[in-house]
Amino acid sequence: VLYKDGERKVIKMELEDEERGYFSVEVDNAKPGDMYTYMIGGKEYPDPASRFQPEGVHGKSQIIGDFSWDDYNWKGIDFPIIYELHVGTFGGDFEGVKRKLDYLKELGVTAIELMPVHQFAGNRNWGYDGVLLYAVQNSYGGPQKLKELVNEAHKKGLGVILDVVYNHVGPEGDYLSVFGPYFSTRYKTPWGPIFNFDEAYSDEVRHYVVQNAVYWIKEYHVDGLRLDAVHSIFDNSPKHILEEIRDAVKEANPKALLIAESDLNDPRIILPKDKCGYCIDAQWSDDFHHSLHALLTGERDSYYADFGEITQLAKAIKDVFVYDGVYSKFRKKTHGRQVGNLPGNKFVVYAQNHDQVGNRKDGKRLISLVGEKALIAPFLYILSPYIPMIFMGEEYGETNPFLFFTDFSDPEIIKGLREGRKRELGEYYYDPQDYSTFEKSKLSWKLDERILSLYKELIRLRKELFNDFSRNVDVKIEGKACIIIRRKEKYLVIACFSKTHLDLKAKSIITTVGMPSSLPGEVSVGAGVYEEL
C-alpha cells in the first residue's frame, strides 16, 4: 500500500509470489518521502527492511533518498581507542552527538561506539529492544542525521562503530513472524524471540541478518560493528552465522572492524578459520573488568564471587582471561579456554561499560562507588596491551547514574517489565518507564578538569609510548597490593590498592594519582607511570 502526497493518494498493488517465500512488485512512481505498508490478511504492517519509521514501530515505512558523502579522505580506524556512548543520554540525538565531536577528538579517542540505533518502541531505550534492523531510530533523527554524524566524524578523524543486535528482537513492534518463520522454535533468550539460523527456511533469515551487517558498512559508511551477546546466537549450521557475517562485511570493506561481546571466554570467536575459528576481529574481556572492579570495590556478589584477588587482575593483564579452563564457583563448572599467543588487539578491555554500570540497581558509576580509587582503573586498561574502551562521562568524573530505561506503550509489556525488575531488584528500584529515570541518566557535562586531563594524558601516552598490542609484558605483584607492569623494558605502570613500600628506583613520567614522583619509597593507594633508572 503506497501513500503519496501526504496520504492524499493511496495506491494498492498486489505483490507477485516468487520462490522461497518472497513476494515482489515493481513500482514506477514511488519517490523519497512516500510512505508505504504491506497488507497481509487485511491488516497493514511496516516493512521488515524499512529504512525509516517516522511514526514509530507500529507506523508506516518511508522511502528515503540518497546522501551526498564527502568523507573521501577517511582511511579507516588504524589504532582503536573506543568511546562507548548512548545517543539519547550523551547528546539527546545524532545532532547532539555531532556537536561533541570536537570534544571527543581533543580527548584523543579514535572511534565512537554507538549503542544500538535501529528502531525501538517509543523515544527512549538502551537500544537492545529494537525490532526493525534496517530502520534508524526516529527520535534520534533518522537515517539522514546518522549519515551526517558519520560523515562529520570521518572528516574530523574519528571512526564510528555501531552496536548491532542479532540474537533477539524486542517485545513491542515485532511483526517479523507475520512475514515468515524468522524465529527459532528450539532456542530462547530472556530478552525476546531469537532468530532462526539453522532450522527450515533459515537461509532467508540468515540473508536478512547478514545483509543488515553489510548495509551499515556500505550505506552508512560505519567503520565497524559491535555484535551484541554472541553467546546467545545459536547456530548449528556447517558455516556459523558469525563467520558468514564476517565474510560478507570484509568483502564490503576489508578494514571494517568486527567486535563480539561474549561471556564464554572462548577464543574460537576470534581464531582464524584455519584454526576452526569464526575470524571475528576482537572480543570483549569481561574478566579484565570483573577482576579490576572486585579489587576496587570489594564487591563479591553475583559473578564477582569469582574475583577479588590481586593475582587474578595480574592474570587478566597478562593472559586476558582469568577463567581460561579453570573452575568457576559462580558458574559451578569449569569455564573458558586459554587464548594462546593471540595479540592484544584481539581483545577489548574497560573499567566500565553500559552493562556493568547500567545493570546495577542504582546505576552507580565507579567514581560514585570508590571515589578517587576509580582513577587507578584508566592506568591499567588504557595502558594495557589491549584495545581500551571508555564509557561516556567516565573521562571527566561523571557522577550521574546510568540506569535502565524504556518507553513501551503496550500495558502488558510494561506490567511484565515492572514485575521482572521487582523480582530481580526487590521492592525499591528505578521504574524504567518513568521519564525521570531517563533524565537521571543523562550526562551532566560537569567536567572535572583534573580527571579529564589525566585521561587525555593517558591516551596520549598510549598512542605515543605504548603504541602496540604486544602481549609481551612483564607483570608482577609487589607485596600484597601493588601491580607493576613493565612495558618496553624500562617503562612501568604501577597500581597500588593499599599502602605499600616499593624498592624500585624510578621517576614518574606523567602526573601520578596518589603516588610519589620518584621511587623507592612509601606509596599509598594510587597509580602512576614511571621510567626505571
TrEMBL record:
Coiled-coil regions, chain positions: none
Subcellular location(s) per record: Cytoplasm
Record-level GO BP terms: trehalose biosynthetic process
Organism of this sequence: Acidianus hospitalis
Top-level enzyme category: hydrolase
Pathway where it operates: Glycan biosynthesis; trehalose biosynthesis
Name of the gene this protein is made from: treZ
Catalytic site: 228, 261
Keyword Hydrolase: yes
CC annotations in GO: cytoplasm
Record's protein name: Malto-oligosyltrehalose trehalohydrolase
Binding site for substrate: 226-231, 286-290, 354-359
